[in-house]
Amino acid sequence: MAKFTIVDLETTGNAPARGDRIIEVGIIVWEDGEVIEEFESFVYPEQQIPAFITNLTGIADDHVANAPLFSEIAEDVRELFEDAYIVAHNIQFDLGFLNFELQHNQLKPLDNPVIDTVELARILLPQSSSFKLGQLAEQLSLDHTDPHRALSDTRVTAELLEHLFKKLNSLPAETIEQLLSLEGNLKSDLRQILMDEWNRKTFSSDRRKDIKLVHGLAVKSIDIPDSSQVKPELSFGEHLDFVFHSKKGLASFMDSYEYREAQRTMAETIFDAFSSTRHALIEAETGTGKSLAYLLPAVHHAMSDDEPVVISTYTTQLQRQLLEKEIPQVERLYNVAIRVAILKGKEHYLSLLRFSKELKERNHDNYDTALAKAMLVVWITETETGDIDEVQLPSSGRILWNRISSNQEEAQETWAKENQYSYYRIARGRSEHAHIVITNHSLLCTDLTFDHQLIPSYNYAVIDEAHHLEPTASKHFGLKMDYIDWQNNLSQLEALMKLHDTTILKNGDDIDRLLQLVSNAKEEVDTLFRALFRMVKNKVRSSEKSDVGRLQVNFAATNVKRTLLAKLEEMTHRLQASLNAIQRSFVRLDSQEGGESELQSHSEHLSSMCFQLRDFLTEVEVDQVKWIEIDANGAQNSAYLFSEPVDISNLIKASLFDKKKSVILTSATLTMKHSFHYISDRLGLPKEETIRSKIPSPFPFEEQVQLMVPNDFPDINEEPDEFIYATCEAIYSLANVTNGRMLVLFTSYDMLKKSHDLLKDLIMPEEFMIFAQGISSGSRERLKKNFQAFDQAILLGTSSFWEGVDIPGDDLSCLMIVRLPFQPPNHPVYQARAKRLKEEKRNAFMELSLPHAVLRFKQGFGRLIRSSTDRGIVFVCDQRIIKARYGKYFIESIPEVPLKVDSTASLIENVSEWL
């Protein structure tokens, strides 16, 4: 085996060119699977160590005060890299610092072959949720006792490298061959290692039972589950007795099992609804165990009547939880293999047919494309679903995915005999024989309106996270379109033309003329979206922003100046003319070759988009509300078009509740002040026939939570800046008592940003780390993990942070709600719905605005207590919860907890005593 020198550095920052320096070096020399040398040293950086770095690494100025300068150890360090691969977790960082220091000391920089274990882990462990060293160590059970210290990080990197080489050794020969073809575009110098691995292979994948060759690709063999009918041995009541009260039930595999009456009540309610073919609304508060409570009756019904039950969720996180945790538990309780299928839209599934073709096209691969392809060729040797949600593709890898998902296949390709090993077909096949079909709200809504069913025929369904059904359906029956959508689709058409240029030329059409038409279409789209951008910017004050910081304006053709409307119409006509000319060429091509090509299909999709665009800009639709948003500080064409129905209830009623025998809607937040009236009205549920059940939490909330409201905050309407300042002072004061561990929820991105800027001035980095949605980099999940990684941290969130973020245990002790979460009164959808209610002589505030805010408030409140042992404070800065007549609706809609109203200083003193 080759020699590998593994290095990790701790530094004062991330840019040596700007003066940052090394403060600790850790090096391991690894050869023939053994560590043959270790080197560790602090380094005196000739500058103070920033507080943030001390907070992260534990290395302070006194640790390095008597350490050598790098110049004193430079030659010893360089010698360790002789004739070796340089290995690091993020090689560019460590090698960049090393070479800067070596050159600074008149030594030759290192130009050895390199291996980046971040990149190698992405390729060989494509299903990992994170590629940070600490999280990989946790996932692979590697010993990582002292994170962010050089030698400890180096040791765990060596263990990771060994694990990755073992994974490489297990790959089929065909996969190694594909990786070799992609290696040239990667950072790591893997050619010799891959060649050595290739030469060691004595088998072909067609000799391995676990691997199958499909379109020249090595993929994991997928077992088709047995579809024979199984019946439950006990009645449902007898089975619940066994599950909840027998030592062989839940108690046999759940540590510290405690019977929950609420869980059994919910299971019985659902079984009764199924048996009596009635719909049901069930609010199950935190701690009920609702997933298991609905799976038990769903599985029993499906097996007894041999018909599927569809379970729809909003988040993929809950789908994974059902598949990986809850379903295996139910299988043990029923002692049978439950036939389960997860079904999503075609865009979620890899097309092996498309991917095999794409792998042959390498002329235009950039780094992200090559990395994404390398990840996917390894992933297909281990996935049984082909669902892209299993993989964390690099940022622009999504462009590749748009070309190789099953969504790009024509109908005849998807169902062709030679494409039997289609992940989408396998998922559909499984769903047709499943007891339980797990899907998402979006596909459920699509299925309700399609002529041909996407989900196999069903009469019984459980809709979890049901408070999302109405907004999902509303978006589904509306429109979302932006400049990037158009450019991506036109660029895909351009790429397809270049791929098929010989066929096009054979047809007599000049490829350059067609490419010019696409270029013209791109220009028309750019001009049109720039015009829309200017229109919004001229119409809206910069202070009127959505909750994600965009300017927005209600769009109606009747409100737009005639001259501008005429220009917009002219642009869409020119765009349509270019698309029509392209499409005519592809129709001629298809008539000669027979069938419909992907070129024609793609051009037809663009024509459909153009019709939607034209309708948006010109049609007057009474039942639709349209609006446009722009990123005021973004590109001059960053305009986003939206439309939604004003009232979705009749559409949902007609397509779902009137057609299905029993639909169960459940969530932790469905009622306002113990009433289901709002959600029933919004969803169009039949009032008389629907079962309604509110199941309280088994958690002792009165002992776990204190609700606190300060009575000395400035009035936000009269003194908005003073309100923000008081909020920030309260955040800082509370953080000192709770040691950080705070989640602060805003209703406005603008207020979040102002608060973040002020907190940065108030709080030193060595005191608390501050993470803010839309400001700190990373997704919601990444921000949550960063927040949890630091002992003293504050997390600021808006919009999506009000729900679906679980931070259990000691990681979260204080939840601050800055403002009651009323919808912005200027949001076009709210305005249209409020106007409709007023026309019907109804109270828009009480029937629309208040219930929506209460449900949102309940979702925010639910972030704090996620287990029976959690404790914490809910601090509400908005005094309307006490002073306004409607404030009681908020308080009476959450579990009964002690409420304290006092000065901010007194409340913080109470927090200190209580915690």
From TrEMBL:
It is an enzyme of class 3 (hydrolase). The keyword Kinase does not apply. Its EC number is 3.1.-.-. PROSITE patterns: HELICASE_ATP_BIND_1, HELICASE_ATP_BIND_2. Its cofactor is [4Fe-4S] cluster. A motif (DEAH box) lies at residues 464-467. One of its GO terms (molecular function) is DNA helicase activity. It catalyses: ATP + H2O = ADP + phosphate + H(+). Keywords: ATP-binding, Exonuclease, Helicase, Hydrolase, Nuclease, Nucleotide-binding. Transmembrane segments: none annotated. ATP binds at residues 284-291. SMART domains: DEXDc, EXOIII, HELICc2. It comes from the Bacteria. Residues 249-533, 271-539 form the Helicase ATP-binding domain. PANTHER family: DNA REPAIR DEAD HELICASE RAD3/XP-D SUBFAMILY MEMBER, REGULATOR OF TELOMERE ELONGATION HELICASE 1. Belongs to the helicase family. DinG subfamily. Type 2 sub-subfamily. 3'-5' exonuclease. This is 3'-5' exonuclease DinG. It comes from Thalassobacillus hwangdonensis. The gene is dinG.
